[in-house]
Amino acid sequence: MFNFLPSLLVGLIATTLMVLNALFWVPILLLFSALKLLLPFKAIRLLIDPVLLRIAEAWISGNSGWMKLTQRTNWDVQGLEGLNDKSWYLVNCNHQSWVDILVLQHLFNRRIPLLKFFLKQQLIWVPVMGLAWWALDFPFMRRHSEAFLKKHPEMRGKDRATTRKACEKFALIPTSVMNFMEGTRFTPAKHVRQQSPYPHLLKPKAGGMALALNAMGDKFEAILDVTIVYPDGPVNFGAFLCGKLHHVIVRVRALPVPQDLVQGDYENDPAVREAYQRWVKDLWQAKEATIKSLIGS
């Protein structure tokens, strides 16, 4: 509706609608979260968590609404058939831009349970959004460099403990655990620095997926392997708000959970770690082949 306007004006409208949508839903989220905090019992959590998820889904629907008003996007999407919003999923995706998150939420909303992301600890201080992520039980991770861990060995394993604690909560009601296996957004500079063997991807990290599978492998109905391609090149969030997201290709594959790996000790068993890395390598080679077939290079 508004995408015929100058891009800066489109950006102003999109930003206003996005902020108003958040300011409407976040206080409602916080109200129910306060009840859960004051009454920290499993029975209360089982009552309130579904309400929080419905609120989050309504918020995402609002985001999809202003995206439709401000974007003129050609969506080429395959693989959404047969999904179930009453099941548990482990979702894996390549990562190029913050826009990936809105794309995933837009496509999966009410098709699968709410996507739960593992976030950097610093993001809890993002105005409004940090409180919303906290209210929805998004885990906040303190990621430390190897140099820091050598000086403070007592901090090693803290993120693993956070992951396990989060997965215990996720196991109570249907949840989609989101994992960007590259660990960061793709940029040419990171690609060169890593010397990644995959032309369109950074090197994958198996540890996060191994932890999630070890903690919740018996719950997951499938692993959803998602590939996002922007044929015109990834857009940053500012350009997205200004209506510059013209073409998105998304392919979704439902993969069986590798039961032979679920009970393995990734951290302490070299054979299990090697098996996971082989599985991830096969996954990444298939994703690279998919990207090449979609963009023709």
Structural summary, described in words:
By secondary structure, the protein is α/β, with parallel strands linked by helices. The protein has one domain: 3-Layer(aba) Sandwich (Glycerol-3-phosphate (1)-acyltransferase), CATH 3.40.1130. Helices cover about 50% and strands about 15% of the residues. The strands form 2 sheets. The chain has a 6-stranded mixed beta sheet, sandwiched between helices. It has a two-stranded parallel ribbon with strand order 4-5. β4 (about 120), α4 (about 130-135) and β5 form a beta-alpha-beta unit. α1 (about 5-40) runs antiparallel to α2 (about 40-70), α1 (about 5-40) packs across α4 and α6 crosses α8. It is globular, with a radius of gyration of 20 Å. The two termini are about 35 Å apart.
Named at the architecture level, the CATH assignment is 3-Layer(aba) Sandwich
Mean pLDDT: 88
Helix fraction? 40-55%
So what's the overall shape? globular
Number of strands: 8
Q: Helix/strand-derived class?
A: alpha/beta
Assigned CATH class: Alpha Beta
Radius of gyration over C-alpha positions, nearest whole angstrom: 20 Å
- The helix-strand sequence is HHEEHEEHEHHEHHEHEHH
Q: At the third CATH level, what is the topology name?
A: Glycerol-3-phosphate (1)-acyltransferase
The largest sheet, given as strand count, sense and whether it forms a barrel, is: 6 strands, mixed
Low-confidence blocks of residues? none
Tell me the count of domains.
1
Q: What order do the helices and strands come in, and which of them pair?
A:
Elements: H1 7-38, H2 42-70, E1 74-78, E2 88-93, H3 99-108, E3 115-117, E4 119-120, H4 129-135, E5 140-141, H5 146-151, H6 158-170, E6 176-179, H7 188-194, H8 207-216, E7 220-229, H9 237-241, E8 247-255, H10 259-262, H11 270-295
Parallel strand pairs: 1-8, 2-6, 2-7, 3-6, 4-5
Antiparallel strand pairs: 7-8
Helix pairs in contact: 1-2, 1-4, 6-8
